[in-house]
Write a structure and sequence with these properties.
The protein has 718 residues and is α/β, with parallel strands linked by helices. 29% of the residues lie in helices and 15% in strands. It folds into three domains: 171 residues, 3-Layer(aba) Sandwich (Rossmann fold); 210 residues, 3-Layer(aba) Sandwich (Dimethylsulfoxide Reductase, domain 2); 123 residues, Barwin-like endoglucanases, CATH 2.40.40.20. Bound molecules: ligand MGD (2 copies), iron/sulfur cluster (SF4) and molybdenum atom (MO).
Amino acid sequence: MKKAAPHETDISRITTCRICAGQCGIIVELDAAGRVDRVRGDPDNPLTRGYACIKGLTLGEAHSSPNRILHPLRRTDDGRFVQVGMNEALDEIAERLGKILAEHGPDAVAGFRGTMNYTNSLAAHMLPAWLAAMGSHSFFSTMTIDQSAKWITADRLGVWEAGKDPYENAEVLLVIGANPLVSLSTFTMVMQNPVKALKEAKARGTRLLVIDPRRTETAAFADRLLQPLPDEDAALVAGMLRLILEENWADREFCEHNVEGVEALRDALAPFTVDHVAQRCNIAAEDLVAITRDFAEPHPDGRRKRGAAASGTGANMGAFSNLTEHLVECLNVLCGRFAREGDAIGNPGVLGARWPRRAQAIAPTRGWESGWRDAWGYGLLMGERMSAILPQAILGTGTGAVRALVVDGGNPVNALAETAETAAAFGNLQLLVSIDPFLNETSRLAHFILPPPMMLERADIRSRDWESYTLHEPFHQFAQMVARPPENSELIEDWQVFWELAKRTGHKIIFDDVPISMETRPETEDLFRILLRHSAFPAEDLLAEKRGVVLRGDPMCVKPAEPCPPRFQVAPSDVLAELETLAGVRRQTSALRLVCGRVRHVQNSMYHDLPSIARRMPENPLSMHPDDMASRGLVPGALARVRSAHGELRVTVAPDRNLRSGVVTMPHGWGDGRGANVNSLTSLIQGRQTINAMPILSGFDVMVDPVDRNAGQGGPGN
Ligand SMILES: Nc1nc2c(c(=O)[nH]1)N[C@H]1C(S)=C(S)[C@@H](COP(=O)(O)OP(=O)(O)OC[C@H]3O[C@@H](n4cnc5c(=O)[nH]c(N)nc54)[C@H](O)[C@@H]3O)O[C@H]1N2
Ligand SMILES: Nc1nc2c(c(=O)[nH]1)N[C@H]1C(S)=C(S)[C@@H](COP(=O)(O)OP(=O)(O)OC[C@H]3O[C@@H](n4cnc5c(=O)[nH]c(N)nc54)[C@H](O)[C@@H]3O)O[C@H]1N2
Ligand code: SF4
Ligand SMILES: [Mo]
């Protein structure tokens, strides 16, 4: 592609795609009517360098989709939606909220943060601020059906103030159950133009190690790939840790100063010998030793290797997800894979204040053990309730029972486990409001749908609070509004819904610790200025930066630790108990195991019906190894019945030689008239984790049999 010089592109057409964490710089062309016509990657964006995926390139179709909701809708008693004015909708919602608050108290009013709330910085702050204004604890998000094992690990094990080993000087990167080249969401990797960034890292000498039952797009670049049976990662990593301690590959000096519980962990790891683990995971013992050696063994002169291990959904959605994540982070802890005193900090902050990072641990606090607790026994995790409890909380009584729910940019009926149960529970809500431009399984059940402007029709900054994790360089781009909302539409920005409701119910919102006017609605820019009030660079400059720029400023280095720093806790008693349980569990391996896995074309349940997407991916097939297909008499494109202990569905099968045999996969997020929802096979309750109620969404047993397409049973579905 010809590289456009900066002056060739009209700056007013430049913004970012906000579907995923990549936040690619894009150039948006408008048609004569001012609607988004064409989207392409911005070759002059310093980080994304022209990269944009099919999802971002299709944003035009999304914005002008004939299915887009352009006016507030109210559901009638007979299930139809009728158009109402925005003020009328807000008045009625507030009136109903007022009654529910009066009758059931603040916890009965809940909010759900979907993925499109995370990438909307004002809404992301306003949703919890609205709940806090009412005094409600009922803040739910996708995190607790995603990788909240990472939050639990941070607060059981501890975290390192200065972050993991910097990407720039990583000699080795270990990726377990994640596919960053497709999903762009692994914090140890670069997520901007990820293929190019990985190739550059490899050219610098970084070795990539991958543990995944599928030879993924990421694994195609791996120096070593281990393809174990899924849902055995806890045992697998336990085996790696045991070997690291046995071979003296741990960083002994680091552990002496910073880690507590190494001996107790060593004892608990005793059952996880190389042979035991190799057998459980159905891998060769020497491959387990080799990948552990590649990651952990110090250089011959005794220097430790640099570069960290990280996991993704594949490791955080199985039967021992919280334990798995703890053990994965123990790989980093035992090997000391953290930024050390004097190391340059990749991204010390742009939108937020810069603060000194010391070379020391932050002690775990086990926050869920104190404070508020719901009637189902769950506390709060980083201020959030557990999403898999939501259906029970809607149907139940007692502390934390939910009667009203506002969902912003999410589709929890599709995303939570056990779809039929979840949908039935949501149908029992006294009030369900969905802030969403489209009908989906959740908004279809809503009493009100409030359509927002879509991302190219509003301005944004990136997440200030996550910038040090999602960016390895101090990068900033103000994502400007490049398109007008459709003619004759009546839309409301997501954050404004919360402000308008609070005003009507007489609650005062404290936005990011700053009380805001409840008389006159703030301007969007005023709120950006609040979020940027401690920024490392002047807020006015940041709000004017539309192209995207790396703002190095004064480089920052990691500071020395305080005299007696807090320590990582590698062996808290609940983790030891989980290890003991794990050692006693032996799964029979005759059934197929179904794993999660994302595809490039869509994000979760979004935008499946756009013509360019539907043409490329009309449904979500069940991918199988050709040998597993042949042994069941299945040919490519055949219809199959998939049964789990909790449900069944019909799917089209597709061959995938990249899968190890014995493992099948299908993407989640489908099933609303296109493909099938894999969550029809999962359970909200059985096997869910302690602390976060995380259901088992990956690595569970299924049976797959052929179905005769001509036998009148129709196509895929559940
Ligand atoms: N079995 C199984 N289940 C899973 C997973 C799995 O791997 N396997 N993954 C889990 C994970 S990690 C997650 S994060 C969840 C996903 O959970 P959700 O966040 O609930 O699902 P999404 O489909 O991402 O929802 C995004 C919604 O935003 C809407 N939207 C699109 N554009 C806009 C916009 O401009 N503004 C607003 N307000 N809304 C917009 C879309 O129409 C869609 O309804 O699913 C979880 N469920
Ligand atoms: N294109 C695209 N990008 C996305 C999304 C999307 O839907 N589409 N969703 C976004 C969201 S909400 C999230 S949370 C992130 C998630 O990002 P990732 O965590 O990277 O998710 P996946 O790409 O599904 O990769 C999970 C990998 O785990 C493997 N796996 C499954 N089970 C196991 C197991 O038991 N053990 C091991 N070792 N591996 C296993 C799968 O084969 C798969 O390769 O992606 C985000 N980005
Ligand atoms: S969805 Fe695609 S274009 Fe959009 S930010 Fe993510 S990778 Fe970039
Ligand atoms: Mo997610």
